[in-house]
Task: inverse folding
């Protein structure tokens, strides 16, 4: 039996989940990998804090130097944040340790340099837990779909936002009320900005782009829109038009060396699309490859257990699966968001009540200006109205023209991207005799 | 650049998809794996048959001996069937070749002996394409969820059945009419028995059990029921109760060395479960592990491209990923089907029209005999009726008692298993502060 000594940086949610699984599943791991992993040191900030795991007191230290002195071969980083985490990870790599991390922000912002450092030292840097929690999407892209040209990745990668949108949509509760309750219950952070404004999703999208397309995208270059302006009425209107609204992180590459269109935004997802029914804190990633066509992975995107599972699976793979290829990553040309999508959702909230037949009149007006309208709906809402359209060739400048032309008081006009129907919806007749089974 | 010579056995749907991908994605494969795979020989039955790929004439042979003489390191088996396929695969392994196959029947029935042979010879036997087409479920179980104790696997693994049920459910078409059209279009075989009676799903379930639980299940030991008796009315009734009906292959293990409950049967799946919305020819596998909780993989379960993709991904992994552990597989105790499931769907078709309040009376009668009724529905259907119940503690012997007691002419009584709600539905409050993201 091979023995591997491990250090943990941090004993919060992820660290605790990791430690627990290494104890509870030691027998499975030993049987499947022939390796015994032993935690030899745990870096914490506070030695006196009450811990959720027993028998770790003698392992705790507040000094990073103690970690490297403990003779460990793998350092598991479960601290989060950029500093001092980044410095510790670099020191661990320089000391010849493999590193496993769940830190999406660190990997999104400094992953490329850390990987170069790791390659130079001949060690592995693995970060499955940084995207989609327990969902093994990075391993799938790297090992199980590598002969495919991946051209599109679309994901629900923030459980807090998906929980809020699911509660709003299924129980008609307002954004503020769900968020407040989520904060009270500990589902959402006291400062929810990173989640609800889409920063967290952008971090994960940058990581997905690296694995899927082999390109290096700066987080700041990803057009990003949060979910704070979504109303229950809008969710209901979308549903009536045949869509759910999800905070979607999308990336599409046009040709292997071509530009990449990126976007984190509330997006209309056709109800029959595999991503549409993903509820609550669940995450899901939809991957399109040139030969496999599409594969969707669904699972729990966060929490002590799923994230701990992803960390431990990575730990086992340090010694089993080959490292990332050594090619340096290209900085791709980034296309403006939305330019590539054919259909948009146009929502006009008016201060007055609109008659149902206004839809037809406005539809005709839009058509006159070259906007193709695929569907339209007038939705009354407490003495006001929403006029909703699915349009093609939308012109943003029309936002300033329409209210004048239509002589209505417009409270706001929103446009949102619409995800194209999946292959499943198109029911393509690609399957030849006897092959469907 | 490493060079690997490959032989193809068969140039039907799978063989053609494999050959095409090895041509079209040669550059991607070379870049990612550092290996050039070259097809050196293709075994076919008929040299004169028109082929869907160009420039292969000089590679074709009808003699298996020519394949082994071609100096190949990997044999890709894409012939299907048991003989002479099994003999060829054994000869290839004995000659020291790695084997990649898409043949679910061969692997379900003879996989264990073939794997032993391969281990003895120090070569790999890979068969990702045999379950779920392009969905990398076997690789996921083997490499990306191996530190978890997998305790349950539920899958929609037959695209023909899922296509038929989707068409019946969404367009109200009869089983016979969808099947006839599917046969005409080439979606279903002239003899659809293997698909619609669940044999194909049972083969795949046996393979999943091997990878998920490390047990050796004989295909004949899997209780199996097909989809031929499902009606449009039943699908509609299930929908009104909050379920879709899917042909589900399910396996659950009770404890690591414990018994296994197995079943292929039309099963009610809660509409909010990740498997419920899987439409058309799509396949999906829901995996439950002790730490990761649940992961669902969705994708195209058949067709030239997805299946070819799975074969080629396997081919690349022959030289990259470690082989299966050498442990010999245990024959588990098999539990009778259905015994383990708490809730059942009970559908009673009567020859007469029932009043809506009959539901309450019958519900009370069922309760008197110890059957707990969770939901009930009377559904009129062309001068007849269906009475539907979701029950707990169902007693099969009641089927002969109830008609007499209720004084109605009963056309038929069906019971079906009901899949438990997924973790997502239960909305468990497991997620602690700041961990949902």
Result:
């Amino acid at each position: 039996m091979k023995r591997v000594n491990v250090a943990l940086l941090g004993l919060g949610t992820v660290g605790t989940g990791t430690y627990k699984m290494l104890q509870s599943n030691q027998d499975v791991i030993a049987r499947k990998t022939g390796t015994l992993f032993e935690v030899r040191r745990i870096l914490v900030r506070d030695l006196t804090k009450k811990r959720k795991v027993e028998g770790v007191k003698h392992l705790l230290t507040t000094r990073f130097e103690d970690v490297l002195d403990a003779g460990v071969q793998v350092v598991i980083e479960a601290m989060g944040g950029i500093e001092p985490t980044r410095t510790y990870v670099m020191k661990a790599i320089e000391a010849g340790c493999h590193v496993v991390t769940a830190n999406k922000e660190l990997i999104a912002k400094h992953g490329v340099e850390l990987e170069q450092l790791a390659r130079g030292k001949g060690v592995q840097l693995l970060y499955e837990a940084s995207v989609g929690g327990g969902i093994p999407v990075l391993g799938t892209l790297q090992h199980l779909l590598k002969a495919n040209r991946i051209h599109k990745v679309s994901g629900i990668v923030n459980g807090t936002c998906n929980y809020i949108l699911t509660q709003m949509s299924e129980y008609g509760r307002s954004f503020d009320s769900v968020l407040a309750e989520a904060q009270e219950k500990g589902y959402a952070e006291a400062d929810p900005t990173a989640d609800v404004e889409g920063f967290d999703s952008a971090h994960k999208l940058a990581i997905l782009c690296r694995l899927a397309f082999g390109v290096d995208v700066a987080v700041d270059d990803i057009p990003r829109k949060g979910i704070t302006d979504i109303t229950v009425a809008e969710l209901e209107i979308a549903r009536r038009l045949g869509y759910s609204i999800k905070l979607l992180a999308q990336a599409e590459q046009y040709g292997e060396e071509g530009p990449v269109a990126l976007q984190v935004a509330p997006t209309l997802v056709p109800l029959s699309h595999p991503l549409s029914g993903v509820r609550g804190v669940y995450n899901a990633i939809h991957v399109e490859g040139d030969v496999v066509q599409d594969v969707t992975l669904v699972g729990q995107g966060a929490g002590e257990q799923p994230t701990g599972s992803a960390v431990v699976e990575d730990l086992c793979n340090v010694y089993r699966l080959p490292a990332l290829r050594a090619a340096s990553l290209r900085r791709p040309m980034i296309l403006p968001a939305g330019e590539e999508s054919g259909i948009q959702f146009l929502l006009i909230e008016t201060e007055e009540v609109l008659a149902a037949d206004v839809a037809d009149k406005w539809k005709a007006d839009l058509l006159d200006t070259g906007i193709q309208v695929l569907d339209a709906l007038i939705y009354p809402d407490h003495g006001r109205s929403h006029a909703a359209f699915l349009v093609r060739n939308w012109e943003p400048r029309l936002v300033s023209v329409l209210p004048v032309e239509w002589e209505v008081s417009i409270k706001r006009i929103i446009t949102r991207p619409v995800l194209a129907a999946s292959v499943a919806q198109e029911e393509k007749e690609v399957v030849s005799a006897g092959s469907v089974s």
